[in-house]
């Protein structure tokens, strides 16, 4: 820790290496921009490393609505034997399941191929502004402070730290102290998938199925199809007899669902998404840290419940927790435009879309509460660039869960497939903006047709789906 | 990112939540101190999270040299199905093998359960000291903003000397001038067939680091016991025909120091693998480690492929986990009241024990090697305590880090309570209380 200030410059700086940030950095670098990706943590990939599946890659109908960066990443996972598959949960979504440990290697490969520069363990703590532009950011790490200037800055910090530091307006949770819960995802190995699916078939009243009216099959048919799919991808629901009884008896803490996701068939391993502490402002570090013991209690409680009550888990072993506490919701930056929840639910299409979403509105609350609203016709909606441009700041864009959206729309667009699509869009926009050697690029001035053309060339899916 | 500075007042501040830091924090809290621990990472545990075997707990002759906090941790792991085992490497050491995933849960329970106030994702920004060089605390940085944490005693358990290196004359010079540091990225693999591996090792021991201690001079007896133990613990050194043939120009492996494996979970048939590494300039470690992030991950791919093809027992094995962070060797060591070396006077009151990596001899660590030169109110614990080059490989062992952490935590709590200075602390009273709390200061069988 010295007091001297090191200086460096890049065309594009991306803050945050979660699903949105790695896509943004990859897109910017592979489109020719000198790009630096910064994260405060020790690893890249964010929630992709926790074991949860990638949602929002396909709509309910099973049409792919995200491509480009995602395709490359999944190719790497396949090559490394870490791809499990894309599955329909016969409830409301298609999920893409990968091994989160292989994902670490796949993310590294992707960024390496694009030539992205990386700076880890480095916290962005100050923003230097000049009028409506960000000139530089100050980054703190063990080696001291570095002042990093760039033509454009892409805020993929989840919390919108950079945009907020630059003076952007923001909304936070429901504005009255409610936030979606934080969660510790955990994994169990040695699961007998056949036995689990047999149980699912025999005691189907425990499963969440058929939540989107677009699904024409009967509940019974959905169940058959799920079993036929053959992979341990299912949701146990709180109002099914098994969970309800255990919650009632105090054997299980109150939670809405237990989401089971296959992560490795070789290790016979699944991830479980179920623990929760609601209404914590995760930007309050002390409050976030303090959720740890409760989350860990729930992890152990749930793994005991699974082993005791859920066939297929009798001989499973606890296999670990995610690298960090999972955060669903903090700030939403106020952008040039705001993604509207009704448009999301109505699957509204636009001619100026630069990314697509298709996940249902999915707002977890405390205990067994969860709002789940399906998208009309099992379709998808378009996100315009304006939702990713903080109002009044010309060289900053955001992507990921800090996008400009109302709370309902956020409940859908926050998922990782959509985060990657948004990331790829702003990364590409930033590269185009710095193409012309303009020392003061303005992201809002990137010609929309050029951006859309480039995205389509590079595999993004913008049109032609429900 | 606010500009306000929050004010936190505590008796004992622990910087760093690795083996040493958590041991110090829990011990101080249990001894009545108000304790705050800060760690820059998203998870407590530091290098414990790699799943590496714990040295410095059981000497090669089987005697216990560690107790107290370590016992609580192992019991905690047990509760979370992490069955630890004492394992002999049939070379030079006994280690305790631990499941790092169970350890994450156990550590959380121990730290929060003892009432320690925890700030994760929080890194030290500045050290607060007065004209006499006394450390009064630190300013930390996190998403909430800056906080001034004022403490009666600060314990630097950062493994990088992030507190003591800001003081004058508190660093041993030799470490500072090393040009490069080694960065490792470890991993875990599952699905190995231990029997096949051990059979090969016993047939061709020359490929492995085995039997170097005189204890194993009856080679065939030792090798049969090694096979009987049935546990996959092995080191393939770079000089071995197996590795040397695969490294260098045209070879498929990067330049490795060794491939080391040890068990982490019998339940998951899982092992720890240390191999991937790279040298980086010592003066810009964060940047250099970041520059090598993708390269280290690529090494892991290569090493897995190599193991699957070249070592029996690995044909069905695959990746189970990549360690949560890269790790550094080398760097800066504290200059303490005592700079311990292999000749350090055993007469000085000993507050922790260690075990020599090379000679398997037990040695004592004096309190003076935790007291940082020229300053008061600051202790160092863990891998950076004041030891000369000849002792550093031993004092940085995970078990020894827990032992020095425990001693530092207790010393800090006693000092905070009495209001005196660290240097006037009665070392005999410290020893007695440590032993009352399970600390091992005389090796026991
Ligand atoms: C428990 C849980 C379950 C979920 N389930 C699913 C699911 O099944 N499928 C799905 O698709 N989605 C799911 N989601 C939603 C989804 O995972 C997240 O919304 C998404 O990953 C957010 O990605 P992001 O890139 O926007 O942000 P994040 O992944 O939060 O990444 C932000 C990054 O920025 C870094 N950062 C933040 N501030 C700074 C700073 N000041 N300086 C430097 N770096 C900084 C952080 O370290 C972090 O790595 C779930 C979320 C949670 C928490
Ligand atoms: C490659 C390698 C192999 C090894 N093999 C073995 C082995 O087989 N057996 C063995 O016993 N030992 C081994 N060691 C040594 C041992 O792992 C370490 O010395 C020991 O774990 C260090 O413990 P610690 O508590 O001192 O530090 P760490 O575990 O490194 O913890 C330090 C903590 O401090 C935090 N931190 C650092 N700086 C700051 C800051 N400024 N602000 C806030 N937080 C901060 C970090 O995030 C980290 O969590 C090995 C070491 C390496 C590098």
TrEMBL record, chain A:
GO molecular function, one term: metal ion binding
Keywords from the named record: 4Fe-4S, Iron, Iron-sulfur, Metal-binding, Oxidoreductase
Pfam families assigned to the protein according to its UniProt record, in alphabetical order: FAD_oxidored
Keyword Metal-binding: yes
Coiled coil: none
SUPFAM superfamilies xrefs: FAD/NAD(P)-binding domain
Domain of life of the organism encoding this protein: Bacteria
The protein's name: FAD dependent oxidoreductase
Upper classification of the organism: Bacteria, Pseudomonadati, Pseudomonadota, Alphaproteobacteria, Rhodobacterales
TrEMBL record, chain B:
UniProt-listed Pfam families: FAD_oxidored
Oxidoreductase is among the record's keywords: yes
Keywords: 4Fe-4S, Iron, Iron-sulfur, Metal-binding, Oxidoreductase
Family annotation (InterPro entries): FAD/NAD-bd_sf (IPR036188), HdrA-like (IPR039650)
Gene Ontology MF terms: 4 iron, 4 sulfur cluster binding; metal ion binding; oxidoreductase activity
Entry-linked Gene3D superfamilies: FAD/NAD(P)-binding domain
PANTHER family referenced in this protein's UniProt entry, alphabetically: COB--COM HETERODISULFIDE REDUCTASE IRON-SULFUR SUBUNIT A, FERREDOXIN:COB-COM HETERODISULFIDE REDUCTASE SUBUNIT A
Name assigned to this protein: FAD dependent oxidoreductase
Lineage: Bacteria, Pseudomonadati, Pseudomonadota, Alphaproteobacteria, Rhodobacterales
């Amino acid at each position: 820790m010295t007091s001297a200030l090191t200086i460096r410059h890049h065309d594009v700086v991306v803050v945050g290496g979660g699903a949105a940030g790695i896509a943004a950095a990859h897109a910017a670098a592979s489109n020719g921009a000198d790009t630096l990706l910064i994260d405060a943590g020790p690893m890249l990939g964010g929630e992709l490393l926790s074991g949860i599946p990638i949602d929002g890659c396909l709509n309910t109908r099973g049409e792919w609505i995200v491509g480009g960066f995602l395709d490359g990443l999944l190719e790497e996972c396949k090559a490394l034997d870490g791809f499990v598959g894309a599955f329909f949960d016969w409830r409301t979504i298609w999920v893409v399941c990968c091994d989160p440990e292989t994902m670490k290697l796949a993310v590294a490969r992707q960024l390496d191929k694009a030539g992205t520069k990386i700076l880890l363990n480095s916290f962005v703590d100050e923003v230097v502004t000049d009028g409506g532009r960000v000139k530089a950011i100050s980054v703190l790490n063990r080696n001291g402070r570095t002042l990093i200037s760039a033509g454009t800055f892409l805020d993929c910090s989840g919390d919108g730290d950079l945009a907020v530091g630059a003076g952007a307006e923001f909304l936070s949770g429901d504005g009255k102290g409610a936030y979606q819960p934080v969660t510790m995802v955990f994994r169990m190995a040695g699961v007998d998938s056949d036995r689990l699916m047999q149980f699912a078939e025999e005691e189907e009243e425990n499963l969440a199925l058929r939540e989107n009216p677009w699904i024409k099959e009967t509940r019974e048919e959905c169940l058959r199809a799920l079993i036929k799919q053959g992979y341990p991808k299912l949701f146990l629901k709180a109002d099914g007899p098994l969970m309800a009884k255990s919650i009632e008896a105090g054997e299980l803490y109150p939670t809405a669902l237990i989401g089971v996701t296959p992560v490795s068939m070789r290790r016979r391993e699944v991830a479980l998404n179920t623990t929760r502490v609601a209404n914590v402002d995760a930007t309050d570090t002390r409050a976030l840290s303090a959720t740890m013991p409760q989350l860990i209690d729930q992890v152990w409680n749930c793994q005991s419940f699974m082993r005791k009550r859920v066939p297929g888990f009798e001989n499973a072993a606890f296999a670990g927790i995610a690298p960090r506490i999972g955060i669903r919701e903090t700030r939403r930056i106020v952008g040039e435009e705001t993604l509207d929840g009704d448009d999301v639910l109505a699957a509204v299409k636009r001619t100026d879309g630069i990314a697509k979403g298709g996940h249902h509105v999915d707002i977890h609350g405390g205990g067994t509460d969860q709002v789940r609203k399906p998208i009309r016709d099992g379709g998808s909606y378009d996100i315009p660039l304006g939702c990713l441009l903080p109002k009044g700041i010309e060289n900053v864009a955001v992507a990921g869960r800090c996008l400009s959206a109302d709370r309902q729309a956020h409940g859908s667009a926050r998922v990782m497939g959509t985060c990657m699509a948004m990331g790829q869009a702003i990364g590409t926009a930033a590269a185009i903006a710095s193409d012309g050697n303009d020392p003061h690029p303005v992201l809002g001035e990137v010609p929309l047709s050029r951006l859309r053309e480039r995205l389509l060339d590079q595999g993004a899916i913008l049109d032609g789906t429900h | 990112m606010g500009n306000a500075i929050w004010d936190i007042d505590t008796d004992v501040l622990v910087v760093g939540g690795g083996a040493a830091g958590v041991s110090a924090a829990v011990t101080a809290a249990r001894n009545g101190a108000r304790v705050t621990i800060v760690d820059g990472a998203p998870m407590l545990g530091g290098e414990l999270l790699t799943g590496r075997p714990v040295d410095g707990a059981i000497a090669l002759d089987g005697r216990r040299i560690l107790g107290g906090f370590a016992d609580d941790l192992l019991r905690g792991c047990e509760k979370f199905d992490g069955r630890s085992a004492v394992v002999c490497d049939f070379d030079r050491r006994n280690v305790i093998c631990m499941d790092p995933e169970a350890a994450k849960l156990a550590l959380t329970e121990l730290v929060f359960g003892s009432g320690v106030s925890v700030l994760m994702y929080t890194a030290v920004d500045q050290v607060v000291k007065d004209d006499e060089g006394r450390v009064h605390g630190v300013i930390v940085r996190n998403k909430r903003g800056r906080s001034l944490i004022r403490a009666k005693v600060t314990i630097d358990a950062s493994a990088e000397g992030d507190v003591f290196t800001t003081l004058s004359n508190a660093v041993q010079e030799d470490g500072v001038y090393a040009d490069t540091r080694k960065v490792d990225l470890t991993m875990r693999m599952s699905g190995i067939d231990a029997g096949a591996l051990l059979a090969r090792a016993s047939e061709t021991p020359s490929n492995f680091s085995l039997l170097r201690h005189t204890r194993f001079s009856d080679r065939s007896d030792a090798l049969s016991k090694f096979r009987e133990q049935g546990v996959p613990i092995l080191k393939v050194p770079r000089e071995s025909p197996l590795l040397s043939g695969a490294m260098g120009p045209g070879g498929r492996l990067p330049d490795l120091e060794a491939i080391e494996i040890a068990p982490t979970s019998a339940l998951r048939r899982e092992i720890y693998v240390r191999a991937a590494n790279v040298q980086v300039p010592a003066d810009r470690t964060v940047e250099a480690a970041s520059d090598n992030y993708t390269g280290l991950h690529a090494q892991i791919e290569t090493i897995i492929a190599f193991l699957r093809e070249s070592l029996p027992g690995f044909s069905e094995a695959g990746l189970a986990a990549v360690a949560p962070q890269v790790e550094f060797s080398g760097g800066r060591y504290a200059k303490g009241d005592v700079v311990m070396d292999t000749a350090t006077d055993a007469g000085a009151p000993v507050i922790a024990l260690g075990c020599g990596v090379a000679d398997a001899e037990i040695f004592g660590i004096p309190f003076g090697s935790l007291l940082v030169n020229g300053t008061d109110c600051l202790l160092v614990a863990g891998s950076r305590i004041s030891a000369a080059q000849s002792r550093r490989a031993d004092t940085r062992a995970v078990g020894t880090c827990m032992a020095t952490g425990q001693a530092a935590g207790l010393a800090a709590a006693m000092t905070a309570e009495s209001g005196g200075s660290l240097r006037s602390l009665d070392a005999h009273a410290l020893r007695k209380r440590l032993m009352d709390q399970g600390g091992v200061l005389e090796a026991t069988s």
